[in-house]
Amino acid sequence: MIYTPSAGVESWQNFLVDPVKQWKTGYSAKALAYCWEQADGFPREIEDLFNNWRTPAFDRLEPLLIFPEHKVSLPGGSKQSQNDVFVLASTSEGLLSIAVEGKVAESFGPTLGEWNTYTKGKTIRLKYLLAQLGLTVELDPSIRYQLLHRTASAVIEAKRFHATKAAMIVHSFSQESRWLEDYQAFVRLYGKEAGVGELVYVSQVDGVDLYLGWAKGSARYLSV
């Protein structure tokens, strides 16, 4: 895959699944693009997630590559996991793979129960995702499927780039933190609790330390 440098915030629109429908003021795609383009490195709220960690794991954190709408292939079908932002970053302890899911009012899509029609392809995909996530517990059908494949993307890309850490971050511009309860239900699969502005270590999968976090974006990006 060949990437070209960003030509500015409007160039992010070209990478969307539906460039017309998704590129609107008050929607996550546009808010996320403006926020990340205007940041000098990481947006402040993303940086704070890692800076508040109480160990040296994220010392000297620096983004090396930032890709909008980064696609990660998954078995069991042709549809990929399209990450709103993917970041390969460096830390004092090695590389870090970050999958970012932008949100405003949009939900996390279908629940696992709604998505899983038990076809051969979906059975293969779900088994693969659970392996990537290191999950052996029985999943409640109310868990959001998007959180499974977005988090798996962070782990998959960590392995591809030989990173020692992976993180899935929800970057929400909803000032009411809409859909936080769905994210928290996902975190509980690992026996952990999580809140807004918190980074949580959940597991080690195939030598990759996995973290989950929820960052609250500034309301000013809802009017751009």
The beta-strand count equals 6
Q: Which residues sit in consecutive blocks of at least 5 with pLDDT less than 50?
A: none
- Percent of residues in helices comes to 25-40%
Strand content: 25-35%
The sequence of SSEs as H and E is HHHEEEHHHEHEE
Rg value:
16 Å
**Major sheet summary line:** 6 strands, mixed
Q: Count of DSSP helices?
A: 7
What is the terminal-to-terminal distance? 31 Å
Q: Class by helix and strand content?
A: alpha/beta
| Count of separate structural domains | 1
Polypeptide structure, described:
With 224 residues, the chain is α/β, with parallel strands linked by helices. The protein has one domain (9-223). It has seven helices and six strands. It has helices spanning 19-22, 28-38, 44-51, 112-115, 120-133, 145-160, 180-187, and strands spanning 62-72, 81-91, 94-103, 165-172, 199-205, 208-216. Strands 1-2-3-4-6-5 form a six-stranded mixed β-sheet, sandwiched between helices. β2 and β3 form a beta hairpin. α5 (120-133) packs across α6 (145-160). The chain is globular and about 40 Å long.
Blueprint of the fold:
Blueprint: H1 19-22, H2 28-38, H3 44-51, E1 62-72, E2 81-91, E3 94-103, H4 112-115, H5 120-133, H6 145-160, E4 165-172, H7 180-187, E5 199-205, E6 208-216
Structure characteristics:
224 residues; alpha/beta; 6-stranded mixed β-sheet; 7 helices; globular
